Amino acid sequence: MTSPTIQKDIVSACKIEIVKAILKKLNGDYFSLLVDESFDVSRKEQMAIVLRYIDRMGFVMERLIDIVHVQDTSALSLKRAIVNLLAQHSLSLSSVRGKCYYGASNMQGEINGLKILIKQESRLAHSIHCFAHQLQLTFVGVSKKCIEVGKLVVLVPNILNVLGSSFKCMDELRDSQKDKIQETLDMGEITIGRGLN
User: Fold this and answer.
1) Could you report the per-residue pLDDT of 24-60, keeping only the tens digit for each?
2) How far apart are CA 111 and CA 127, in angstroms?
3) Within 10 A of 32 (CB to CB), how many other CB atoms are there?
4) What's the pLDDT band for 195 if we cut at 50, 70, 90?
5) Where are the domains of the chain?
């Protein structure tokens, strides 16, 4: 298990099974495509590809299906990488009904960016925002108007970093929360039952 080759094989097998499970939950043939480009710690350009779809239960889901290494970040090569990835999973650009891109101008460009290249192939694909980005934009907008929200946006990640770095801290927080919930239940401030909380 300490062999890097074996570890990579296990990770690859897990990835394949997870993507299969995601695609099995796709309800129908249509989905939205969310694409972002970034680079990893070794400074290699990568493209994260996320599908947004309605699952069989009727819920909107956003699932990362792959992070693709791209050597050339031109819009044409990004499109080629997306088409190849979709083809590997028996999907096509003609099934795309929504699209969202972040990153450089080669993603968003109105003349020859990835946005236009995909629009040419899938006329029914409308521009959308992913949920996380919508939440981020909302927080930024509200924090500019309300100083307390701005402080909260800074404070929450700091708390999560401190708590997340220690299992003992997380256990103490859970115990404290459990005690507070029991106390409010005993005082009758909250009630329990299906769908109430």
Assistant:
1) 887 667 888 888 777 666 677 888 888 888 887 788 8
2) 16
3) 22
4) low
5) 4-128, 134-187
CA 37 – CA 50 distance, rounded (Å): 12
3-state SS assignment for residue 1: coil
How confident is the model over 122-149, as pLDDT tens digits?
777 766 666 666 677 777 778 788 888 8
Q: Which residues contact 47 (CB under 8 A, 6 or more apart)?
A: 35, 36, 37, 67, 68, 70, 78, 81, 82
Assessment of whether the complete model's pTM goes beyond 0.85: no
Phi-psi label, residue 7: left if phi above 0, alpha if psi -120 to 50, beta otherwise: alpha
8 Å CB contact between 8 and 38 = no
Closest C-alpha among 131, 63, 76, 129 to residue 99: 129
DSSP 3-state of 42: coil
3-state SS, residue 191:
coil
Overall fold of domain 4-128? Nucleotidyltransferase; domain 5 (3.30.420)
- Dihedral sign, Cα of residue 103, residue 30, residue 65, residue 79: negative
What pLDDT digit, counting tens, does each position of 50-59 carry? 888 888 778 8
